[in-house]
Amino acid sequence: MEYAMSQDQAVEGDDVIRVGQLEIRYLQQSGRGNQMGAFELRVPPASNVPPAHSHANEELIYVLEGTLRFTVGGETRDLRPGDSMTTPTGVAHAFSNPHGVTARALVINTPEISADYFREMAALINGGGPPDRSRMLETMKRFGLTPVAPAPTA
Predict the structure, then answer these.
(1) What is the pLDDT of residue 77?
(2) Which tens digit of pLDDT belongs to each residue from 58-72?
(3) What is the structure's pLDDT at 14?
């Protein structure tokens, strides 16, 4: 049985999906009995990032460069190169980069979050003018992501 990445699972190395300031480059898509996907995520300082959300995917984030702030449930950590954090299925999580340099991380999901999700979000966000929030939320839900309302402030 062949377990190496097949050509139809591989993604062109130059295929960078830009969602606002974020860059996503898929390294592995699911297929041929494999549900896992992996992508490289670049987060410049002070980038607009997705709202806190949950999904039915397990997720591992492993920081390669810079520092990425990652929150899972009630735990927030500043992850540096070599640090990782996991998100169990259905647990709310979010990320940001309040630091001075671009963060780069490897993100692994099982089952994967399709590259089509990021392409659709890119079309909504990069279209010029303010993005249509209701269409963004609908897209998130269609791909299995559930936005989490921010906690009320005192």
Answers:
(1) 97
(2) 999 999 999 999 999
(3) 56
Tokens 């590259």, located at residue: 115
Sign of the torsion angle spanned by Cα atoms 139, 143, 146, 150: negative
Please enumerate, as own/partner, the contacts of 75-79 that have beta carbons within 8 Å and a separation of 24 or more.
Answer: 79/105
Distance, CA of 146 to CA of 35 (rounded, Å): 20
With bands split at pLDDT 50, 70 and 90, how would you rate the model's confidence at 122? Answer: very high
The count of C-alpha atoms lying within 13 angstroms of the C-alpha of 121, restricted to the half-sphere facing its C-beta, is 27
- What is the structure's pLDDT at 124? 94
Residue 143: C-alpha distances to residues 6, 82, 97, 102 (Å): 24, 29, 24, 27
**Is 115:29 a contact under the CB 8 Å cutoff?**
yes
Tokens found for residue 111? 């089952």
Exposed/middle/buried for residue 148 (C-beta within 10 Å: 0-12, 13-18, 19+): middle
Strand 75-79 relative to strand 84-87, pairing? unpaired
